[in-house]
Specification:
Blueprint: E1 8-16, E2 19-22, E3 32-33, H1 37-46, E4 51-56, H2 57-61, H3 67-76, E5 80-84, H4 90-98, E6 103-106, H5 108-112, H6 114-124, E7 128-135, E8 138-141, E9 146-150, H7 151-160, E10 165-170, H8 182-191, E11 195-199, H9 205-212, E12 219-224, H10 226-229, H11 235-242
Parallel strand pairs: 1-4, 1-12, 4-5, 5-6, 6-7, 7-10, 10-11, 11-12
Antiparallel strand pairs: 1-2, 2-3, 7-8, 8-9
Helix pairs in contact: 1-3, 9-11
Bound molecules: the ligand O=C(O)c1ccccc1N[C@@H]1O[C@H](COP(=O)(O)O)[C@@H](O)[C@H]1O.
Length: 245
């Protein structure tokens, strides 16, 4: 394992109503609270993270905004941040990028506003990733409450538009601690030359090892959420398995 290419790990800080939370299958109302997002982010920095995956859940659900708090989180850490949730127009995109985050994820807008998404990719290159949140092979947007088309059709369109990275979430796996959907991830890697970041389901160090084993297929990184908050393992342990920078 030590010779295999490393897997980037992105500990998650999902924010709802000003608190760090985890959801189960993205369902509103399933929140487990983990306190102050600034402290959560600092914990991941202290544990050796090189990335944080930072989500405004209220913006993703269209019920509010934690934009100022997310900006404070980005500015409080000296590591790379991937921001997502509610980035759907020029104003929200420019505001997110102006925080100094390394990149943003676009979800709903990639399904509902293809022209705007293509322009954002053309303008910002690999600072823009697209979140492909799927149930089976049907994409989901608006807080995972609305179907948004076929995964393979949308992937082909985004590839043509030059998207350089996809964050692939199996919604049914998210927050379930039941292992990642490696079959889906490998199918996506097979269909695109773009980088793939895995999201959803990691529960153990073995899951991280399984994802590291498919880095050479195109899986660049993995988002880890509930398993870290529940202390199934520590971030340093996870980084040992994923490979350190
Ligand atoms: O991360 C979650 O648990 C989550 C749950 C429900 C909806 C979205 C969620 N997260 C991420 O939010 C963005 C999508 O936001 P938008 O559609 O662009 O407003 C995407 O990265 C999701 O993975």
């Amino acid at each position: 394992m030590t010779d295999s290419p490393r897997l980037e790990l992105l500990p998650a800080v999902d924010v709802a109503d000003g608190q760090a939370v985890r959801l189960t299958q993205g369902e509103a109302g399933t929140e487990t609270g983990y306190g102050d997002p600034l402290s959560a982010a600092q914990d991941w920095v202290n544990g050796g993270a090189e990335w944080i995956h930072l989500v405004d859940l209220d913006a993703a659900f269209g019920r509010g905004s934690n934009a100022e708090l997310l900006e404070r989180v980005v500015k409080s850490v000296d590591i790379k941040v991937e921001m997502s949730g509610g980035i759907r127009d020029d104003e929200s995109l420019e505001r997110a990028l102006a925080t100094g985050c390394a990149r943003v994820n676009i979800g709903t807008a990639a399904l509902e506003n293809p022209e705007w998404t293509a322009a954002a990719i053309a303008k910002h290159g690999d600072r823009v990733a697209v979140g492909l949140d799927v149930r089976g092979t049907t994409l989901s947007g608006r807080g995972w409450t609305r179907d948004g088309g076929d995964l393979w059709d949308v992937l082909a369109r985004l590839d043509r538009e030059g998207c350089s990275r996809y964050v692939v979430t199996d919604v049914k796996k998210d927050g379930m601690l039941s292992g990642p959907n490696t079959g889906l991830l490998m199918d996506v890697c097979e269909a695109t030359d773009a980088a793939v970041v895995a999201s959803g389901g990691i529960s153990s160090l073995e899951d991280i090892a399984a994802l590291r084993a498919i880095v050479d297929r195109g899986v660049e990184g993995a988002i880890v959420g509930k398993a870290l908050y529940n202390r199934n393992f520590t971030l340093p342990q996870a980084l040992d398995v994923a490979g350190r920078p």
